[in-house]
């Protein structure tokens, strides 16, 4: 596939996935189009060799896999690619309605390590999951997306904040309530959601009982740069990796056990029923391999590539990187290592990736955080600790991580894809 077509599909996926629930729905639609069948955790499974399947949990995490064909997975193991569906953002509080000086606002809660300054003065829309009761008293959940700008967080004029460019700090409680419009009386936000559901064609909505809603930047993803060198979008961390893993799984030839796992809640520690520190992946493995001895043998022969974006060296802040470990955008995927196991890469898993990349003609970079700075982490070390599986942490370099709008290279996503496909097809790791 040409890079332009690859990136066109990537941009469509990013724009269709403003929340983790929408991201999983987007992944599921593409998996079904590729012939993968959805299974449900509450039902009995009878997967067939060579066929593809997927499960969802909480609507925000997904595991997709292709059953091994012509081989004993206990001997060859699984090839796993992991990523996460959530991104730092602003979420609506349970009782959010505010009326101040005639303006209708919604109170927000900060989800994850948000870079807050870029959220001001952006056209914001609203999306997520809504739970509601119908006229017969039955409960339902639906995805909701206003799609158009419905809110803004205006900056305070510099004339009233003379220190804005030198020492401004943001109080998340008081600075961030989003302006939705003007009103003399406090609207019922749940009633507004009910009306929107009805207007989008959902019938029988009697009352909205609860919701999980995220504000998001209404500006869509785009290619930019004089030669279209870059992709700019919200949620590149880490929907970029989800898409790359999806494409690799769909396009890989059937063979050994091949798995894509995209967990929610990575940005807040991964400790949840659907997070990497929860039981979802382990429970899936126990169901597809009920025999404990076979399962443990398979894990010993398996490998996980945890794909989560890396910090590209910023030309204005190059001193924030170790001189020998500043990844460049559009110079290939990045192996992430950390002596204190914040990343799970080791010399053996790194060597295999370098070998596969060399066979595909893909350059590889390295990232180690400055020794005097704290290091982030990924689902890699968590999954490695939960399952005991060999793991590599890899990522596409990007700028502005955790901003409302991030930047990556237009060539790096497909470069990583080109390595993940032969990894998934590899008989032994």
TrEMBL record:
SUPFAM superfamilies in alphabetical order: Aminopeptidase/glucanase lid domain, Zn-dependent exopeptidases
Record's keyword annotation contains ATP-binding: no
Known cofactor(s): Zn(2+)
Enzyme class, first EC level, given as a word: hydrolase
Domain of life (superkingdom): Bacteria
Claim: Ribonucleoprotein is one of the keywords in the record: no
EC nos: 3.4.11.-
Keyword set, alphabetical order: Aminopeptidase, Hydrolase, Metal-binding, Metalloprotease, Protease, Zinc
Molecular function in Gene Ontology: aminopeptidase activity
Family from the record: Belongs to the peptidase M18 family.
NCBIfam families: PRK02813.1 (NF002759)
Protein name: M18 family aminopeptidase
Gene for this chain: apeB
């Amino acid at each position: 596939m040409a890079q332009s077509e690859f990136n066109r599909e990537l941009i469509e996926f990013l724009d269709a996935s403003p929340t983790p629930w929408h991201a999983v729905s987007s992944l599921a639609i593409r998996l079904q189009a590729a012939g993968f069948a959805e299974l449900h955790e509450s039902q009995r499974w009878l997967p067939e060799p060579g066929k593809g399947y997927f499960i969802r949990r909480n609507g925000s995490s997904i595991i997709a896999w292709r059953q091994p064909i012509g081989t004993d997975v206990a001997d060859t193991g699984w090839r796993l690619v992991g990523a996460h569906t959530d991104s730092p953002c602003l979420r609506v509080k349970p009782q959010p309605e505010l009326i101040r000086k005639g303006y209708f606002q919604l109170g927000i809660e900060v989800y994850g390590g948000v870079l807050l300054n870029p959220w001001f003065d952006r056209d914001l829309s609203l999306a997520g999951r809504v739970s509601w009761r119908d006229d017969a008293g039955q409960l339902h959940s639906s995805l909701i997306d206003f799609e158009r700008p419905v809110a803004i967080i205006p900056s305070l004029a510099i004339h009233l904040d003379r220190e804005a460019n030198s020492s401004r700090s943001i109080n998340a409680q008081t600075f961030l309530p989003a302006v939705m419009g003007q009103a003399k009386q406090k609207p019922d936000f749940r009633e507004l959601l009910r009306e929107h559901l009805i207007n989008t064609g959902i019938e029988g909505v009697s009352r909205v009982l609860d919701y999980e809603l995220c504000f998001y930047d209404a500006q869509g993803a785009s290619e930019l740069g004089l030669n279209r060198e870059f992709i700019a979008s919200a949620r590149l961390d880490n929907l970029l990796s989800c898409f790359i893993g999806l494409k690799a799984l769909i396009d890989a030839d059937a063979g050994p056990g091949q798995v894509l796992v995209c967990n929610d809640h990575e940005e807040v520690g991964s400790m949840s029923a659907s997070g990497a520190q929860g039981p979802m992946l382990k429970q899936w493995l126990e169901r597809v391999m009920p025999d404990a001895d076979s399962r443990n043998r398979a894990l010993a022969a398996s490998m996980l590539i945890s794909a989560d974006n890396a910090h590209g060296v910023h030309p204005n802040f190059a001193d924030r990187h170790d001189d020998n470990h500043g990844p460049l955008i559009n110079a290939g995927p990045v192996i992430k290592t950390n002596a204190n196991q914040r990343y799970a890469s080791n010399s053996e898993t790194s060597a295999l990736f370098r070998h596969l990349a060399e066979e595909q003609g893909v350059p590889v970079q390295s990232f180690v955080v400055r020794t005097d700075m704290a290091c982030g982490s990924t689902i890699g070390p968590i999954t490695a600790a939960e399952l005991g599986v060999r793991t590599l942490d890899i990522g596409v370099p990007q700028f502005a991580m955790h901003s409302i709008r991030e930047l990556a290279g237009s060539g790096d996503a497909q470069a990583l894809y080109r390595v993940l496909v032969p990894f998934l097809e590899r008989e032994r790791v």
